[in-house]
Amino acid sequence: DILAAFRVTPQPGVPPEEAGAAVAAESSTGTWTTVWTDGLTSLDRYKGRCYHIEPVVGEEDQYICYVAYPLDLFEEGSVTNMFTSIVGNVFGFKALRALRLEDLRIPPAYIKTFQGPPHGIQVE
Fold it and tell me: What does the entry list under GO cellular component (predicted)?
């Protein structure tokens, strides 16, 4: 799994558990509209899961939500696909007052699928 830690500030009245679950869903398989392919595939193997929530010390109404994303959700070798999936759509989510990606842990086996820069590295 790819592990992400988000700093979450829920809207007033939204419990942190609901905010964490919403971040996990919206950044993996969640959508606001009905998609015709929903009935073709079980989404359970692709869902992000919020597995732990802890309050941020010294910050009122802020939490660190830890989310695990199954590797099957991502295209191998595509940094763009990975980041778009994790952070591309979730930051405008209405249940949250603020959201920030704090940490991202990527398994070495998945990192090895990245090809690196197409034109090498130039040192200046």
Answer: chloroplast
The percent of residues in the chain predicted with pLDDT above 90, rounded, is 36
- Helices within the chain (DSSP H only): 16-26, 79-87, 108-111
Q: Give me the mean pLDDT over the 115-121 stretch.
A: 79
Joined tokens for residue 79: 């940094």
DSSP annotation of 56: P
Locus of tokens 């606001």: 32
With tokens 């979450």, the residue in question is 8
- Does residue 117 lie within any of the structural domains? no
Q: How many domains does the chain have?
A: 1
Q: What global pTM score does this model have?
A: 0.79
* pLDDT at residue 30 tops 60: no
